[in-house]
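Data card: per-record layout.
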Amino acid sequence: MKKHFLNLALFFLFIFFSTIIQAQNKKELSALATEAENSLEKGIAYMQTLAIEGGYVYYYSLDGKEKWGEGKTDDRTVEVQPPGTPAVGMSLLRAYRLTKNKDFLKAAEDAAGALIKGQNDLGGWDHKIYFDRPKGNRVSFDDNQTQSAISFLMALDQEIDRPELTKAVEKALNMMLKSQLDNGGWPHQYPWQGNYHDFATFNDQGINDCIRVIIEADKYYNREDVKKSLQKVGRFMMISQLPPPQPGWAQQYNEFLQPAWARTFEPPSVCPSATVHNINSLIDLYLHTKRGQYLEPIPDAIRWLKASQLPNGKWGRFLELGTNIPLYYDRGRIRVESMQQLSLERRTGYGYEVDLGIAIEKTEKQFQQVSNPGSAGSKPERSSLEELAVNAKEIIQNQDNLGRWIVHNDKFRKEISVEKWNGEYRVEDRISSALFNRNINLLCDFLEAFKSSSGN
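The structure for this 456-residue chain is written out next.
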């Protein structure tokens, strides 16, 4: 009997102390949430001091006088390609959605204003906006340039009612539909030029980012022409998969749906990295449309990816059609036998061998989750509130009194006057838009999880 009462007493004592600990943890997390919102305010306020007509570049010197995008730039130029203007704008918009801080929304509107000023007559963007020059007449789907701009403008269009914003979105979406190729893909650039820029291009996730935009547009606007575009690109994803024994995808396809040359160091081949991205796009299409056909190409593609790993643990960027042998090309279509024989420019500036192990594992896990939703371990993994709190604390600690997050001892190519880079670097502290976007989004991740756990 005494033992029974002792166990009961210990149980209630455990409950008592657990309650105290939980209350203390909740109090600490609440205080951290306040700090996180303050950190957002300081970081965003500082970032706005660097804006050029609302837009952003990639890097800034600590005094803000030097600026870099794709190379050194000036006070009348901003970048469209992430992590530039649209990516910063999306970070600002997310911070507003979580905090309802109107200053954040104003900053996001300013970023959108820069993009609207830079939107060309066709309805899209190139990789830069020059405020002191006439607008170009080319749309680039490379490196998520035009796509990221449309995604941000559409997202902002859901929050505010601005005629000029709605008009820019409609113009951009109409361009997306007009530029879609007959086979269902999208070119590297638009309008057509009579060269490889006209090819359906997966390189740098061009078509993958277009698919994301069309899915978002279908969610936001429910347009019949957008739905048809989605069906068209879905079919393209299916018919562009190469046959066994290499059931992957090429980087680019000509009008006959054949893998084709792009630049003189980008041969027709099977591309493992493009294949990983295409599997993810097929999963996205399935999740949006619930059409099981989009999952059918995936198992063969995953098996081929696993079988294509090189002895050094990496994957070749280009694998020869028919043989699966890695290909290495310098400019001028000069084929060499190994990475070591490439020129400095190609060896250091282009990933002929890439580590896809984690990406393939993550993609395969996602495929298993969507194809077997009831199976054990099918639920997506999420970071715990405690993990997110650790990230938030580190970000807050690394922010200086001005609200800056600094990349210390950043190593980057030295600006030179000759045509080819000679291998020289500069090393100095810089402000990075990529680091800003990362930190803003990690703080938002924590705040979102905290508010969810608190029932807010």
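Known properties of this structure: The two ends are 46 Å apart (CA to CA). Residues 193 and 364 are 38 Å apart (CA to CA).

See the next section for split statistics.
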